[in-house]
Write a structure and sequence with these properties.
Layout: E1 5-7, H1 13-22, H2 39-44, H3 47-51, E2 56-60, E3 65-72, H4 75-91, H5 103-112, E4 127-133, H6 142-156, E5 161-165, H7 171-179, E6 183-184, E7 191-195
Parallel strand pairs: 4-5
Antiparallel strand pairs: 1-2, 2-3, 3-4, 5-7, 6-7
């Protein structure tokens, strides 16, 4: 991946956590939406470079990160790692909820049940990703560059496909992913796949 895309560095994480939060409400700002602003980054960002730092990249135009892509090449292995390593850490920060769940508790429950990541396409498309760009970084080709760079690396590693899920309310994401080679598994659905061949 060429500039302004670069590999993730551990000192990026605080800024990437901000970006995750500022894009975490169907692409909009989720600041203050949940009782802890750490919840979304602790679920959808931080576990990825903790498990697979070589599969994380940053969009940095020179003044610091404006976006990122984090991925794992093997979702099943990631789920095993999460249950073994991340859930015990997560449990020190968030009480395990009991049913019936509030919307926030549904999110927290994910931290205790990483098997929710085992989507129906996990065997044919074993990698998965999360990508976030601040609004000012969108429309400049950075999202495409991040995804093409990831797919090239997956192809080199012999990984046949990648998948992702979106918030159904995120219309911009639903329009973007088909433009970069992803297809919804069902029309209008929230689960997208792309072959790396």
């Amino acid at each position: 991946m060429s500039a302004p895309i670069r590999p993730f560095r551990p000192d990026d994480l605080p800024r990437l956590r901000e970006i995750c939060l500022r894009t975490g409400a169907a692409g909009g700002d989720a600041t203050g939406r949940w009782s802890s602003d750490d919840l979304l980054p602790d679920l959808f960002l931080a576990p990825y470079p903790a498990h697979a730092p070589d599969w994380a990249w940053v969009a940095d135009a020179g003044a610091g990160p404006v976006g990122y892509l984090v991925a794992v090449p093997d979702t099943r292995a990631f789920v095993d790692w999460w249950a073994r390593e991340w859930t015990p850490w997560f449990a020190t920060r968030y009480p395990c909820p009991e049913r019936p769940f509030s919307p926030e508790e549904e999110l927290v429950d994910r931290g205790f049940h990483p098997e929710v990541l085992l989507t129906p396409v996990v065997d044919s498309h074993p990698a998965h990703l999360h990508i976030d760009l601040l609004p000012q970084a969108q429309g400049r080709g950075l999202g495409r560059a991040l995804i093409e760079g990831l797919c090239a690396r997956l192809r080199e590693a012999g990984v046949p496909g990648v998948h992702l899920s979106i918030d159904p309310a995120n219309a911009a994401a639903a329009a973007f992913y088909p433009r970069v080679g992803f297809a919804p598994t069902v029309p209008g659905g929230a689960l997208f796949t792309r072959s790396t061949a």
